[in-house]
Amino acid sequence: MRLRLIFTLGVSLLVAALSVTSVAVTPPAPAAGIRGIVLFIGDGMGLGQVSTASELLFGGDGSLFLESAPVIGLVRTFAADNMVTDSAAAATAMATGARTDRRMLGLDPSGRRLHSIFEAAARRGLATGFVTTSGLVDATPAGYVAHASSRYDFTSILRQMLSSKVDVLIGGDFTGYPRTARDRPYRELLRHAEQLAPTGTTVVRSEAALATARTPVVALLPPRSRMPEQHGPPLEITTRRALELLATNPRGFLLIVESQVTDEMGHDNNAGGVARGVAELDAAVRLAVGMVKARGDVLILVTADHDTGGLAVTDCSFPGGSARVAWTTKAHTALWVPLFAFGPGAGRFSGVLDNTELPIRMASLLGLGLSH
What we know:
Layout: H1 2-18, E1 36-42, H2 47-58, E2 71-76, H3 87-96, H4 117-123, E3 127-135, H5 139-145, H6 154-163, E4 168-172, H7 178-181, H8 184-191, H9 193-196, E5 202-204, H10 207-212, E6 217-221, H11 235-246, E7 253-259, H12 261-267, H13 271-292, E8 298-303, E9 307-308, E10 312-316, E11 323-326, E12 332-333, E13 337-342, E14 351-354, H14 357-366
Parallel strand pairs: 1-7, 1-8, 2-14, 3-4, 3-7, 4-6, 5-6
Antiparallel strand pairs: 2-13, 8-13, 9-12, 10-11
Helix pairs in contact: 2-13, 3-5, 3-14, 6-8, 11-13, 12-13
């Protein structure tokens, strides 16, 4: 009992020491040769999800594009109030460089507003965008754009999304999510999004309309037929469109791309679904690297907000394709997540990092500053 008490107090003191929510960074000059950053987030995509997907899809030798990354690191993900984070606290940390409590967006634990790397980029004239297969008002995109004490305040989050200065917002209308089905104010606001968006902002609701839209644009895409909590076309298509719209900005750009499939399938303990989600994200990463390779001035990062499920292969026979996997939970875990980096500046993301370090290092490379 005494040992348990000492351990508990030790962890509490450690979390308190590391949960600093005040960060001040003097804006540096942009790193030589870097004019853009693309950050891919596999929601719930821990190291177990990546390795299992590689093994199930390609066997022992692997063949995910991620495996070709010249720089690889690991990321700690804990929240201010718990070693096991949620997507809201994780997104806030990855957007602002400051930890917060679970379910909170863009605010520190006391409710004080935090400034995101998107806001810093907009102040310097960089183009910004967020792409997700989840609902646009879900926790990860909201953590970069909105400020709310609850990730479930969908009406406030959508209002902030529509009025934001982000150039490209591509996600789902979230009509396939059970919580929004009961949220009548959100549904009403969603119906009138075109009328409520500022003058000059285009709201589209289909892949065809997105293909011809100009910035600023907000895409509220319908659910996928077989996966109602996922939205829009394959991530390759929306990633390509976002890069086409953002990458011509002469001052540079910042794009965040999220696949939520891995998290959803992790909660369901569906290893096959996880593999398909990792493969979809991997294809989008391959596309992005190919699109910017000739430029030589774009850094591409791939990581996760947290691990979901604690997945591992426990037996797999060759040949034959049969495998046994094990899950530790249907919820999130405190496992570290992988980070893959391609392009100029990749070396800044090796080793073991806190998720709060990601936006600070990204901002430094782009010549931005984050302050709270």
